[in-house]
Amino acid sequence: MLVHIPALLNSDQLAHFRQQLQADHAPWVDGRVTAGHQGVHVKQNQQLAENSGMAIELGQTVLAALERHPLFISAALPNRVYPPMFNRYQGGMHFGSHVDGSIRLLPGTGQKIRTDLSATLFLAPPDSYDGGELLVEDTYGTQTVKLAAGDLILYPASSLHRVNPVTRGMRMACFFWVQSMVRDDGQRTLLFDLDNAIQRLTATQGDEASRVKLTGCYHNLLRMWSDV
Ligand code: NI
């Protein structure tokens, strides 16, 4: 399931992000520093140094926005979120077809995180660059994603995906992974659909007894399928 989360960041936050990321002192490094065996051959972009003060500060703003976003919580059922990272593509840079590594070490902790979901938060307006679409292969074919600045896409980390070459301007984005309380994408999708239906029943003042029953089903399925 691909989930589009609009306006995770507001325009003030975006302006601050862009001003920081375009500053002369921004610590951009070759993106291959964090690529695995598969990625290193197909990855051609730049990343903000992972442990830099700038990456940590901007990353914390993203994490705070995620924590209070009901659509993100409902769709991802997050257990752990990998510290957000930042990348940019220009002058033909691209990222060829790959699947993200399944297990990553959380920096500085020795703890592991299982990557159930991948997330890309677009930071540059789509008309400011050509190319740079994220292509995700899912059950229904290849989905093409190029979103407004501030919008987030969530997709299964198990899917093959790539980023088209950027032929004009600069694509800047934030990316990270989520270990979900529900590992299986199909189970997570069912819970998301059920949650949406319950929210709609509440908003339209639907039958109260049905809503209570369905909410019970939601929690009992979550209890059955989650690991925390
Ligand atoms: Ni990837």
Structural write-up:
This protein has 228 residues and is α+β, with helices and mostly antiparallel strands. The chain folds into 2 domains: 3-180, Jelly Rolls (Sandwich); 185-225, Irregular (DNA Excision Repair, Uvrb, Chain A), CATH 4.10.860.20. Helices cover 31% and strands 32% of the residues. The protein is built from 5 helices and 16 strands. The chain has helices at 11-21, 53-67, 70-76, 185-203, 208-225, and strands spanning 3-5, 28-30, 43-44, 46-48, 78-81, 85-90, 94-98, 103-105, 112-114, 117-122, 129-131, 134-138, 141-145, 152-156, 161-163, 166-180. Nickel (II) ion is lined by residues 98, 100, 118, 161.
Characteristic terms for this protein:
228 residues, alpha+beta, DNA Excision Repair, Uvrb, Chain A, nine-stranded antiparallel sheet, five-stranded antiparallel sheet, 5 helices, 31% helix, 32% strand, binds nickel (II) ion, PKHD_C, vitamin c, Pro_4_hyd_alph, iron, dioxygenase activity
